[in-house]
Amino acid sequence: MREQWTTESMPDQRGRVALVTGANAGLGYETAKALAERGACVVLAVRDVEKGERAAARMAGDVTVQALDLTSLDSVRTAAAALRSRLDRLDLLINNAGVMYTPKQTTRDGFEMQFGTNHLGHFALTGLLLDLMVPMPGSRVVTVSSTGHRIRAAIHFDDLQWERSYGRAAAYGQSKLANLMFTYELQRRLAAHGTTVALAAHPGMSNTELARNTPAALRLPLTWLAPLITQTPAMGALPTLRAATDPAALGGQYYGPGGRNEVKGHPRLVTSSPESYELAVQQRLWAASEELTGVKFPIADSEGSPLTSGSAATT
């Protein structure tokens, strides 16, 4: 029988600096807590600083808090500037925070809430912090996706912000598909440099606050079924932790629960939807994301142009 990967499988993280978005509760909290317990210096990047401070107080080790609201590009830029002033390196960036099945609404910049928060906010944050990572051997960007990326799997370039029509599940699926396409295109761009790598993970069905916007018709049945079909946030965080710390993990890989249909279980390497691997769509999404956020990454494009130096440009 194959050995099951747990937090006990994690190597020592002393000397490493990790940033986890949405780390005051749920999957982010468990991810940050495990990294801190293994010796990493962990920054909790959270929208509610008070909640973040309370979460940090429950963790052992070197844990600090940074204000970050992914629904505002101004906040993302302010947070990135603050982090750059206090950190001289970044070894792990865990793009964990997200929203799910929200009613139709927009971010402060006018983006559809799920696409803007789950994808564009993290795209911008990664670009603004990446040059703290590329000098660090073994550094990793891990972005949390979902099996929901298979829901009506497409990037709707003709209506990215769902202005003509809106479906909660389909919009969520687009945002989670975007997370994977971002990871794969980022890894392609990073490969020429050879230090930082990009990976993705998903938590399966984990019992967290993320599902609070589930439509009412589904909420009661899911509440009854939850003990049977969900796992704890600590278990749900394991795929992210494996992608972040397993010495055998490689850039471009995707980790999820190893049980049936990837719903529960210990983490293993999994495969995303065929649509997520479409190179031309990945590149088109990257270009659209740069235009929408005004953030251009300080790395080669996927055609192999030379790496540039300095921080990400903004427009």
From TrEMBL:
Matching InterPro entries: NAD(P)-bd_dom_sf, SDR_fam
Keywords for the protein's UniProt record, in alphabetical order: Oxidoreductase
A Pfam family recorded for this sequence: adh_short
Family: Belongs to the short-chain dehydrogenases/reductases (SDR) family.
NCBIfam families found in the cross-reference section: PRK06197.1
Protein name according to UniProt: SDR family NAD(P)-dependent oxidoreductase
Species, as recorded: Streptomyces tendae
